[in-house]
């Protein structure tokens, strides 16, 4: 007996962890897709994303 696979487990967006959209798979939006692209190209985020694990502020007076 085989279980009917009607809903494939969707992977969350690797950028913001939101449910991915079919249109922008595996991302949730064009923005996250762009963020990931820039991430690979430049090695850093060119677009402000939700993730800010790299404190690089030079705001010391
Ligand atoms: Zn996202």
Q: What does it look like?
A:
The chain has one helix at 30-42. With 61 residues, it is mainly α. The chain has a domain at 12-44. The longest helix is centred in the middle third of the chain and has 13 residues, at 30-42. The structure holds zinc ion (ZN).
Question: Average pLDDT, to the nearest integer?
Answer: 78
Bound molecules: zinc ion
**Low-confidence blocks of residues:** none
> Using only CA atoms, what is the Rg?
16 Å
- Order of helical and strand elements: H
End-to-end Cα distance: 69 Å
Task: Give a concise summary.
By secondary structure, the chain is an all-alpha fold. The chain is built from one helix and no strands.
Please tag this protein with its features.
61 residues, mainly alpha, 1 helix, 0% strand, binds zinc ion
What are the SSEs and their pairings?
Elements: H1 30-42
